[in-house]
Amino acid sequence: MAGSTNEIIGKHGVYCTSARNPAIPALDLQAVMHQLAGAKELIQSVMQELASKPDSK
């Protein structure tokens, strides 16, 4: 799901740029990209924590 979300954001970024600086994404894209990066970091940290714990079986 995150991959398809990144693909959609990427396509949107091609057509929606900042009016002040066309080299950077519009503010809505910056916010979404920031939230996706945070979610990715959270998922990675949880996966690392789970991998380091011994099985409780």
Explain how this protein is built.
This protein has 57 residues and is an all-alpha fold. The chain has two helices and no strands. It has helices spanning 2-15, 27-52. α1 packs antiparallel against α2. The radius of gyration is 16 Å and the shape is elongated. The model has no long low-confidence stretch (mean pLDDT 77).
Task: Please outline what is shown here.
Helices cover 70% and strands 0% of the residues. It has 57 residues and is an all-alpha fold.
Write the layout of secondary structure elements.
Blueprint (H helix, E strand, L loop, with lengths): L1 H14 L11 H26 L5
Helix pairs in contact: 1-2
User: Helix share of residues?
Assistant: over 70%
N-to-C SSE series? Answer: HH
Strand content: under 5%
Please state the average pLDDT score.
77
N- and C-termini, Cα separation: 31 Å
Quick tags:
elongated; mainly alpha; 2 helices; 70% helix; 57 residues
